[in-house]
Amino acid sequence: MSCCRPRALPRVVQSTADCRRKWLSSIPGNLQGDIEELLLDDNTIRVLSRASLLSYHQLKHLSLTKNRMELTEPGAFLGSHGLHALSLADNLLFTNYSLTAVALSALPALRKLDLAGNQLTEDMASVLLSNLSSLESLSMARNVIMRLDSSVFTNLTQLLELNLERNYIFEIDQAFEGLQRLQRLNIAYNYMTCIVDFNLTQLRVLNVSYNIIEWFLALESDDLFELEVLDLSHNQLLFFPVLPRQSKLHSLLLKDNEMSFYQLLPDGTSLENVTVQFLLIDGNSTNITTVKLWDEVCYSNLSSLRLLDMSQNQFWYLPEGFLAKMPALTHLKLNQNCLETFHLSERDPLARLTDLDLSQNLLTELWEDTGARPALPSLQLFNLSTNMLQALPAGIFTHTKQITTVDLSYNRLDLCPQPAVLGRSAPCVDIRGLATLTRLSLAGCGLRDLGGHPFRGTALTHLDLSDNREVLSGDLGWLRDLAATLQVLSLHNTNLSSTSVDFSAFQSLVGLDLSGNTLTALPASLGALKLHSLDLRDNCLTALPADVAWRPLGRSLQELYLSRNPYNCCTLGWWEALQRVERLRVPDRREVTCNYDSQRLSAWVLPEPVLRDCRWRTANMALLYLVLALPTCLTLLVAFTVVFLMLKPKLLKMVKRRCGVSSPY
């Protein structure tokens, strides 16, 4: 059929017929008989009849996603015994699911099946899957399954991957116990409230994110679990999950829950030694059992854990020795919690940690053991932004020989060196000599007059000084120290004026943010730079230079932000020139406005009457200048003539006297 484009593919799939989005109501019968992949997505096919695939005996991959499939007739696949992958996603299979089940049972080699988005219930799923023992990958996502038990997946003994996301599952009763080869299970976006006695030892990846889980309790067993990735993010967990004692877990995702540790209460009370007695009465015998009210000892082996994400929770402290059980940890995310202190202790060796995020907490100080081994020797990214820090441990960066990125923004921190006050140096953060440091954010730190060359010995390429209203006061020698290496600079809301900074030395600069200042004109020193990105939003600009599009700056720019400035609607020649620059992108171009009399108009498309009036005003101004200049010129000419006539006799006498020739008047 001419509407279907055949193509050759290497290795597994030898030939493909691409018939997607062709408004087909049936499977074309005149394609090449040896095709192995047939793509029929986004058509209007309703029925897969017995004769639909008889001509394609070599078919291995068939996709009918996003059609209107209501019926697959029994016998539809009798000529396609070699079919390995079948996608029937986003159809209407719920209408005749029992007949479709009969048709599917004729596929002994089927390994991958996608039934997502077909409004199937658990009972329908049980019927459809009853004779598909060869399946290795199954998607039942986006259906209306609510409860799973052992009857649904009984015969899927070869299943390796199962996707059940975006259903309405609230209960699972031994549904996966018979799936001995299952390795990847996705139950995200459902309504599970708890997982108790988790015992799928063969599972490698479990995703139960975006549920309403409050408890996760693994089976108390010394068996080795193959679990490598556990995603419990975006739930309602109240406690740190009880994990398998022995596992291969390397990624634990707990973001966006309601977890905390409870051995220490916010008022300082400790529950560590508080005990509770249970009285057990069985007939005539009575037993008294005494247990600790709260025990935060983690009995799981987390020696292989590399990624731990506990962000967006309610932790206000970490138990002593908590991180000591994770010697292989490389990424630790504790941002958006309630932490008040963070202790870099010898008991919590973080020798391999490369990424530490403590941003958006309530930190007032970091503690580091005196005399302990070097803290964070492998650290590369350190985020402390949006806390209440006023100082960091002295020499915290002394042994961080690999650090590249530090974010200290929105703390009340100063950079060393600081002038001595009453014989004592004020607390400060010393980054001098950090040769590996390339990205530094100091936004909103209240910096002022950075004397003493605080960046000496660094090779910063990205520097953010936003929201420091006095950082550009005083001598700017500290900024010139970075001229050779700096590539991206943010001076948003720094009280910058058009003449505050000379940018001509920053020849490596490619990104510059000058938004939120009081610029009335584009700094002249920018004209020779070859920036790729420039942000001029929220200033006091009435126009840009008329030749900005032809300067080195205009020729190199790829991204330009211009909105929220009081441009003059009658002097937008520069704007028209910029719009003709092909590679230049102005993401906020529809937000660029200009002032016309007392109106604010969109500069994107000015009304014709406004354009006509602007042209008339421009012409009138030229005429006005001419009218003003003409009388002046005439006055000067008359004055010159009068003076000349008055002085003419005297001038002639002077000339004759010098030449020695007399002549009558």
Summarize the structure.
This protein has 665 residues and is α/β, with parallel strands linked by helices. The chain has six helices and 40 strands.
Give a structural overview.
- With 665 residues, the protein is of the alpha/beta class.
- It has a 23-stranded mixed sheet, with no helix packed on it.
- The chain starts with a strand and ends in a 6-residue tail after the last helix.
- Mean pLDDT is 88; it is low at 8-13.
- The chain crosses the membrane at residues 622-647.
Summarize the topology.
Elements: E1 5-8, E2 15-18, E3 37-39, E4 47-48, E5 61-63, E6 71-72, E7 85-87, H1 97-104, E8 112-114, H2 122-128, E9 137-139, E10 147-149, E11 161-163, E12 171-173, E13 184-186, E14 194-198, E15 205-207, E16 215-218, E17 224-225, E18 229-231, E19 246-247, E20 251-253, E21 275-282, E22 285-292, E23 307-309, E24 331-333, E25 341-344, E26 355-357, E27 365-368, E28 381-383, E29 405-407, E30 420-421, E31 424-425, E32 439-441, E33 462-464, H3 477-480, E34 488-490, E35 511-513, E36 533-535, H4 552-556, E37 559-561, E38 567-568, H5 573-579, E39 593-596, E40 599-602, H6 608-659
Parallel strand pairs: 2-3, 3-5, 4-6, 5-7, 7-8, 8-9, 9-11, 10-12, 11-13, 13-15, 14-16, 15-18, 17-19, 18-20, 20-23, 23-24, 24-26, 25-27, 26-28, 28-29, 29-32, 32-33, 33-34, 34-35, 35-36, 36-37, 38-39
Antiparallel strand pairs: 1-2, 21-22, 30-31, 39-40
- Identify the overall geometry: flat
Distance between the termini: 113 Å
Strand content: 15-25%
Q: Tell me the helix content.
A: 10-25%
Major β-sheet profile: 23 strands, mixed
User: Which residues form runs of ≥5 with pLDDT under 50?
Assistant: 8-13
Radius of gyration: 38 Å
The count of helical stretches stands at 6
Class from secondary-structure proportions: alpha/beta
Mean pLDDT equals: 88
Number of strands: 40
